[in-house]
Amino acid sequence: MSVIDFIIVIIYLGILLGLGVRLSRGNETQDDYFIAGRSMAWLPVALSVAATTISGNGFIGGPGWSYQSGLRAFMMNASIPLVLALACSCFLPFLYHIRITSCYEYLQKRLGTASRTLGAVGFLATALIQVSSMVYIPSLIISQLTGWNIKVVLIVIVIVSTVYTLLGGIKAVIWTDVIQMVIVWGGLFAVIFLALKNLDIGFMETIQVAREAGKLNALDFSMDLNLENGFWVTLLGGGILWMQYYISDQSQVQRLFSAKSVTEVKRSLLTSGILMNVMYFVFMIIGLIMFSVFQGRTFDNTNQIMIQFIADKVPAGVMGCIIAGIFAAAMSSVDSLLNSMATVFIKDIYEKWVLKGKKTASLTISRNFTLVMAVFVVLFATLGFLNTTASVLAVVGSYISYLCGAILGMFLLGMLTRRANDFGVSIGFAAGVLGTVVLSKVCPVNYLWYNVTGLLITMAAGYLTSLLKSEKNLAEIERYTLLGCRREILRANTAHTDKKLLQEMPCHMDKYSWGLILFSVIQYLVLGMFR
User: Which of 7, 54, 116, 498 could be 107's S-S partner, Cβ–Cβ 3.0 to 4.6 Å?
Assistant: First the structure.
């Protein structure tokens, strides 16, 4: 890496820190720090949601996965628009309506303390896995390009991400994500231009090479349970993974809580759903181009494909811009998860168990916990990912599959039923996690299927166990279910046909939900045309 590349990266990091300092002036209360006083417009929220979902893992791991598996790797993200349509029409308007900071506060209101604590601990575990992998990617790149010790690089990246997150809170997270999204797109176009420039054939000829190698066959309807990224496993198992992420994962829900209204939330979901899948498809195309660049060469570590291209084919100056883009993709996820983990720890652990609900925690305590989590991130990234040879995306997905279905099952039991209670749902959660672990050992299949089994076991065990201990106050419980909340909103408003009222209530399909469904259909048709 040349001096000019270092200067470009340093300037970029300096801008992020400066933005964090500027936005720190508006943080006077805990609500300002965690949910921006519910003041954010839909566009920056949409860009932030998309940036967090893509991350540095997508920038590096996505093309590597496509290089190896072709467009079938895109199927991992194919169910996102359908999931967002469901979230947009039902679940997020409901959670926004009950005015909470942490989504696990809902579990307390609807079920009880045990469910809330289990949900919060489950999130902290999955978030730690995700954020550790997201900080590993840029560390790997810089270590490969400079020869620096990867552990030193890890520490530096975490420090920078932590500092501007500490300073500006969720507003800094969202606005830096906006900048980072722009930089990532610039990096993508630079990679595509330079890759095609290094080939003697044009783009369409590159696609033909990929077709002849069987890289364009994305849709596989086989029922083979070990099939990677088949249609059914990505629709069902992948759908549950993304549903848990967008409905019961604080890193995404918190960003949407910061929006001005439910309408702003829905606009954000429509925009981010389209943007992130278009971007991920571009990652896949880059992987196909790399297949021609390296003439189908076999790599022991698919994460090395993009790294080697940057090292060998990218000129000085441009390399700095691309590395800044990779930093941007990674840090847009690291900052979000650090802030969300601090939120969950403060609201669901510290205030609940230490302060015992008597008062709210100070911003100083919130920031201190963010620092503690940053240390854990470095340790976990070092222990969990340094020897990874598979795609980081696949590794992370397999790690969190043990908890994903169980966490979502807790929320669905609360939202969809009146009989579920704290005792039953807690038992269901434990059964879902343990059952999934046992099944993975006894009957090893594609890890996405474990999301399905985890959800089914949790909901079945949770509901049946709840019947052993009846709840007395069903009227109070009903207001924290989807249909109960809808009826309560209608009773409180006489103008039932009011457009704004319909927009705000759960279980209502509108243009935003239909737009996401239409986009989902279009993407499957496009994948079918590529065959």
Answer: 116
8 A C-beta contact, residue 19 and residue 164:
yes
Q: Which residues pair with 40 in a beta bridge?
A: 259
Best CA proximity match to 262, nearest among 31, 520, 486: 486
Residue 391 · residue 283 · CB < 8 Å? no
Which sign does the torsion angle of CA 38, 40, 42, 47 carry?
A: negative
- Nearest by Cα to 284 from 76, 65, 80: 65
- Neighbour tally for 345: CB within 10 Å: 23
Q: Are 175 and 266 in contact (CB under 8 A)?
A: no
Paired with 259 in beta bridges are: 40
What are the tokens at 33? Answer: 């720090």
What confidence score (pLDDT) does residue 309 get?
Answer: 84
CB 469 within 8 A of CB 424: yes
Distance of CA 143 to the CA centre of its chain: 26
3-state secondary structure of 259: strand
Distance CA 325, CA 182 (A): 9
Residue 281: its pLDDT value, please? 93
Measured between alpha carbons, how far is 250 from 227 in angstroms, rounded to an integer? 31
pLDDT on residue 413: 96
Q: Give the contacts of 283 (CB within 8 A, at least 6 positions apart).
A: 58, 59, 62, 63, 66, 188
pTM assigned to the model: 0.87
Give the three-class secondary structure for 40. Answer: strand
Give dist(CA 256, CA 273) in Å, integer. 13
- Residue 399: both structure tokens together: 């790690």
pLDDT in tens, 234-250: 999 999 999 998 999 88
d(CA 259, CA 252): 12
Q: Is 348 left (phi over 0), alpha (psi -120 to 50) or beta?
A: alpha
Compute the distance between CA of residue 373 and CA of residue 435 in angstroms, rounded to an integer. Answer: 29
Q: Distance between CA 322 and CA 475 in Å, rounded?
A: 56
Tokens of 251: 């890193």
**Burial class of residue 294, CB neighbours in 10 A (0-12, 13-18, 19+):** middle
For every residue of 131-154, DSSP letters joined together read: HHHHHHHHHHHHHHHH---HHHHH
What are φ and ψ of residue 259, in 5° steps?
A: -70, 160
Do the Cβ atoms of 302 and 65 come closer than 8 Å? Answer: yes
CA distance 142 to 154: 10
Calpha distance 10→32 (Å, rounded): 29
CB-based contacts of 297, cutoff 8 Å, min separation 6 = none
- More confidently predicted of 361 and 412: 412
Length of the chain in terms of residues written: 531
C-alpha 368/C-alpha 530 separation (Å) is 50
- Nearest CA among 283, 310, 304, 303 for reference residue 5: 310
Distances (CA, A) of 175 to 128, 158, 432: 23, 18, 37
Position 417, amino acid = T
pLDDT computed for residue 162 by the predictor:
80
